[in-house]
Fold these 4 entries.
Entry 1:
Amino acid sequence: MIIDALGWIALVATCIAALLTAANLGARITGAGFAVFFVGALVWCVVGYATGQRQLLLSNAFLALVDLFGVWRWFYHRARADDAVDRVKDEEECRAPLFALDELIGKPLRGRNGIALGTVQGALADGATGRLRFLVVKPESAIASEDFLRLAWRRGLTVSAEAIECNLLPHDLAAALHHDADRRSDVAVIDQRN
């Protein structure tokens, strides 16, 4: 009876931990996910020991160690790094708005009049100057289904807390999908063929 209850507790803890970790809502939430994974692994260890399931015990003992590393990595290390980035942004914000490159990933790309154009999947900076050169954008499904676009970082692109704003319209992105755009153009399809 108690072992059955512990099995359910471990299952629920593992499911909650998976959701917290997969949500990618910041270092502290991900760290909380690993902490809950750790609790779940410990409970699975108890269930494995009590029921004589050696593989369950050993695999979850190992996972508990991995989870402890995850807690350290996300709660301590990554959270402190994020706090340092935020402090620099706060100190330097008076000159011009600053943003961390990883903050661009997942931001919506909005065109003229706030029209949703897609979601940023990555940002590429020049290795020599450190300046942003391109965004990799997944267009809205109404514009394209499978393709990713390379969007040159030009004047007119601005970053806010909510989105990246640009001067483009949906047909500007759609036009790049229907022909092989010049590699120097502002918008081009990324060829994913090997």
Entry 2:
Amino acid sequence: MIDARQVERLLGYRDPDGAVLSLYVDVPAQPVAIREMLVRVDNLLAEQADAARDAPHTVRRELAEARTWVREALATHVRDWLGHGVALLAAPSLGLHEAMPVSWPVHTRVVADRRPYVRPLLSALHHARPYYVVVVERREAWIFRVDGESIESVSKLVGDGVRDSSHAGWAGYEEYNTRHRAAELARRHYRSTAATVEKLLAANGRDLVVGGHEVGIVEFVGQLPDAVRRRLVGTFVVDPHTMTAGDVRDLSARARDRRRREHELRVLAEVADREANGLAVSGIEACGQAVNRGQAAMLVVRDDAVVAGFDCETCGELTPKAAATCPHCGGPLRPVYDLVDELLARVVQQGGQVEFADQVSGAGGSGEPGSVGPAGEPVSAMVRSRLVRPDR
């Protein structure tokens, strides 16, 4: 599955002639629907070939090789990807041949441009990033790895035990000592489990969800290092001795989704507060201005709409407005398939953050899922300093 470092690596591929092909496909869960999907992909690839008919011969040849590779890769591995979104990226002259399943719908499309189209990958990272689950009780812990609909058991940890505390001994003193010893062993078990989880998370960008009985969850979370606690994205109650892997997957996914929605609402509220103080902007044009000047600390995508625009060949200025020349430097403009994707890529490369709030009910003016903010704007940006707004 895709991770943030892979996206950053993909952004390093760039062909000035625009011969980088990105094919995104939602593979059906049922094998009987594969043929129909492949026909649709063939039609999209044929449309892309037709759109490139006026390109230089070398570009047409590169794109033809790329189309052949993505089509063959899809046909070869399609049954491995049932029920997943898939990104197939190719640029033969750059040595780029990537096929990546993602656990989130990607909307079937073909894009040819100067670099890989990464917006669906960034969206998948936000909505369906793989994570670890730890189910804890006072003597045992179970660790799972979850990627979309798949769940894998990683390990089971068992702490030291004590004898049955019902054997109280003389005047109850042994009962007190036994219970005190049991509490100390539980804390030791939680600390050991927390250390194991810390090592797991240090090697990747995965989040953490914790399950178990309520008391055990509270006791365990209290033992987590600060760095691990910041990766905690949800908790859920489950009986460790009757749970199934399916229970863990479903309950942890619900817990993570609840926390994600809460996070998205907080981000949108912060955007609104900062916009009132001149430290956030909404809309393609205003966000483009912030990104053009390297002032976008965070880009928030509030809709899944594709927004066409233009990129200056000379200075790199992005604009949604068609014009004969760049309004900034007078250089020639080239069409861009999706300005939102270009804004996302540049913010990542500038060291900023990207967020998606396109699944929150009530996120925008209409109150419907996927609705957007002021005047139906699809993106907002938190800026590092106040900007002079562009003329509308």
Entry 3:
Amino acid sequence: MALEMESMASAIGVSVPVLRFLLCFVATIPVSFTHRFVQSPFGKHLYAALSGAFLSYLSFGFSSNLLFLVPMLLGYLSMVLFRPYCGFLTFLLGFGYLIGWLNVTQEKTFEFGNYFVCEEKKGFNVQVEIRIYFLLEKKFYRENAEFDLQCAPVCCVCGICHVYYMSGDAWKEGGIDATGALMVLTLKVISCAMSYNDGLLKEEELREAQKKNRLIELPSFIEYVGFCLCCGSHFAGPVFEMKDYLEWTERKGIWAPTEKGPAPSPFGATIQALLQATVCMALYLYLIPHFNISGLNGPAYQEWGFWKRLSYQYMSGFTARWKYYFIWSISEAAVIISGLGFSGWTDTSPSKPKWDRAKNVDVLGVEFAKSSVQLPLVWNIQVSTWLRHYVYDRLVQKGKKPGFFQLLATQTTSAVWHLSCTALLLYTVVANRKDNLIFSYYSIFNFASHCKLKRTVKTPKGLYPGYIIFFVQSALMIAGSRVLYRWQQAIPSNMNVVKNLLVFISFAYTVLVLNYSAVGFMVLTLQETLALYGSVYYIGTIAPIVLILLGNMIKPAKPSRSKARKEQ
């Protein structure tokens, strides 16, 4: 079996861990389909919990379920014990656990297992001694562990109850870990707690989304676990609400039988999602040999002129997006075929079923977006919706309009979420072999080396500034787009040429800044990100800043139609 996995992985050009993950990920489709045949609500919750845990075990190992159990328990206990504050507590604890930002108060048993899945190198047997230092009450505590490892390099991150390595480096080395799934799970746990918290508030104090999603009663623990792991949605999303999950399971709300008949068939929408996934993967496999990270760092790139560099950055960002389109299309198919993806009926005659509850991306909407403001509505849609409902809207004071602060805070939250693989505690890893290699890792508070390297070793630094830079860039990009939109709206209707010119400029601006910003998301490190931005003279940073400054100086009059409405 192992040989078959190796040969299959080699044939498609991925590592065995990544292949195993992809197989389990695709398996969420038949697993979700089988969910339709479970009759009782309790059985559905139990099936969702067990099938999700089993897929996690196959993908990441047994320890992954223990990793997931901690934030789930933190969220549920917050709801049980501290309902008036459960939303705030779960938000802090969930993100704190996600980035390993909690103190260690007792000796821990570290399970290495499948978290140490790196690019395998035959015949490389390393005896590794781990010395992990915890910063606790201004003292360092040390724990030692020894184990055999058949892979290299060693990638590990100090978490709360486990040591697991960073997702960014895992993917770079051909590995896979459970951090991405933990990221999605964290959002689901937080949304459940905050919706339960909203159940205490008066209806007139709530926004429409809060009214729709709030929970009056505490879900049972089996309902809660089923919600967290249902349809394998914790692998890559989509994020959905506990209220919707409960109504779907109990055949209430839009899933209740109506005069229109039983719930519509999901097979047509599922096939459409699978076809989209196939096209996306085919295009990605065709483009990736020509436009990739290696090309951005290659010597040929340095010899090119400005326009060719900018074009290559554009194509690299364009190419990278298709793997996300593929993953989200598969997860969409899994949720649709379970029935949970159903979101109601159209207003047309005859009415048709809508299946956009699981929709995470509008491919054409992203690639042909006329404005950066539209991107959150068509890219990673469910996470964008989560950020709007649980961060952006809740930062806006009643009676006031949102501004740049709310936008920047939301983008910063998104950046922190993507930095889940960051280690906030200091630790060092020492690998003992003939040449006595030393791998040094640092917390974000201490980048000074604690040991001398006898040989240069490329190691992860624990913090990926590329993520932060990307999301700050996104905030600037959207703010710049809003300036262009205001100018466009101020153009009189009889000046169509000028208005269309501004539409084109907005489209070109979006394409330019989006793909420029995506470079940071791909290369991750500060040095590489700044070097690549500098190679095109920081054009994608300067352009939005100039627009924002011009927007403050050139403030167009409001459209005449707005004045007419006020007079009415």
Entry 4:
Amino acid sequence: MIMTAMIVNGEGKRGDFRTNNLTNSIIPEPQYIYVNGTGGVTITPGSVILAPGCEEMNSADFLNTYLNNYYGFSLKIVNTQAELETFLKSQPSGTSGASVASSSSETSGTLKTSRATKSSKASKAQSAAKTLNAANVIVSQSAEISVIDLSIKPLGSLIDPAKFDFTAEDIKREGAYYLKTSGNTATLVGANPQGLFYAVQSLIQMLPVQFRDSHTAQHTAQHTAHAGQHSAEHTAQHSTQNTSQHSAQLSAQHLNRVNSQKSIPNLQVIAAEIVDFPRFEYRGMHLDVVRHIYSVDYIKQYIDYLALHKMNYFHWHLTDDQGWRMESKSHPKLNEIGSWRAGTIIGIFPGTGVDSTRYGGYYTIEQMKDVIEYAAQRYIEIVPEIDVPGHSMAIIATYPQFSTTPNIPKEPAITWGIYNRQNNVLAPSEEVFEFLSDVFNELMDVFPGQYIHIGADECAKRWWEESAETQAFMKEYGLKDENELQKYFAKRIADMVHARGRKFIGWDEMLDDGLVDGAIVMSWRNVENGIKAAELGHKAIMTPIKYSYFNVAQKRNEDTLCHRSWYAPVDSVYLFEPVPAWVPAEVAANVLGGQGCMWTEYFPHRQRLEYGIFPRFSALAEVYWTLPSRKSWPKFQLKLVDQFDRYDLWGANYATEFFRSSGLSRNKR
């Protein structure tokens, strides 16, 4: 049944406002959407954005940059209703009336926007596009100028929750929004700035992808070829410089597709009405930059992927056995020694040997601050991680006295999976805790977010058992066993974090040792550990390996990426339920949400990385945004076909196993 009632008119009845049988390809699926199918908005280079405030300008800038990067034009932005009316009156009838962004202008794959300043003139100057070479592009004509109206205000002024099956609190959530496209106006209203930004993401996903042509089949074949290749090389080509080159090459691909169009077509957006809000407050993705480091430019591209999927946390894994990736002013030797390894394992562990190429690097404080600001403009908080007391080989290679075996030479690990095989744990001593205080405070000086990740996983306690000095420390401090020692480590670091007004996250091994007050458990081994933490009154973040680790294969026997026994197809990711139905409401309330993880042992460059994350990234976004009653695997499969077109538009790589397993075709229409 296709509804005719509109939300604003208040004619809907409880529970009957839902996705109807007309097409929408928004990922993640909105909680409530009515698609009319006719009378939508046409966006042309002559359209105009109304953005009355600084936060509205931030979302307007993002939309404009997206249009510029991927469609070859940007829109005029006005800040007041009077300015809008003056602009509309000034436009000749039947013409688009606005300039178009230069197709030859230099752009990267990232969506470069900035928070609007108090000066609307300066803000508009940042958003203004260069004039397009008229000989290269013919601007489509439009009889009416469409308006994209951005605003932030309580959604209760637009809709009556009593007529639907959500509450007044739902539409006050961080990220709640209302969107309506009808006639010549797209109305986007956020309950808060983040909500408006998410409304823009939904509008972006309602845009048609213009480049469905012969490149699609060719690109699909190229992706299949990429998937079968395993890099055994860990030379300078896998440095941050080369990662940047990969990024530039892929960005050039989508720019070439834009430039190849001799005409910029009108972008027809379906008539629809949406009320939406996130299910969970924490929706994130992780990236390990230790095993393989990625350029700042690509980190920004990765953050854009989060933004386009309405994710709001980026977990940045900065330290591990194979390297220390953040600049340290207090301990510069960490960058001189700990940030570099002598070589890298060749092939799948245990490998066929180790190359002899020095590998490494680190992010400067200024680079990290740049990334933090870039993420903040997209309402994404960065969760930085220093992983201790295990996974500390890079630290003890720099400071051997911090090891339980200080007389045995150490170096940053040149292989993977050294847990319990090499001594990579910190010894307990006041000197070590002073060091940890230095680096964690340094981390918190740079990263302003509420969450600090302390690791606390895979600490091989055998090295503490075998150390007389460690046993003496335990006796002095009244610690009866090694589990209590690890809890003591967590407590000391927790005190450092809490003293700065922050909260700490650790992997779910903390449960094995007993949880410190205030611990937030990131459950990676299974779902049950997250629920157990929630039952104990602690907050939990789900990222179970079976459904959330995107470094594992997407099909059986795909041994070019990881061990054959591990695989997570996109359907299992999508159908994953982070809070089983049997969990009591008071326990479920302690589950903050969840994230996907990308460990980069076998992902040395962008193409391989994106092959691992897409399309599973998109599936996971819907898991943590959309209510279970609104999800539909059959419908998601159809939306995913459109999403592959967007991957092509973005210049992103991806796996194509979905098409084989689903039986769907890129040409489903």
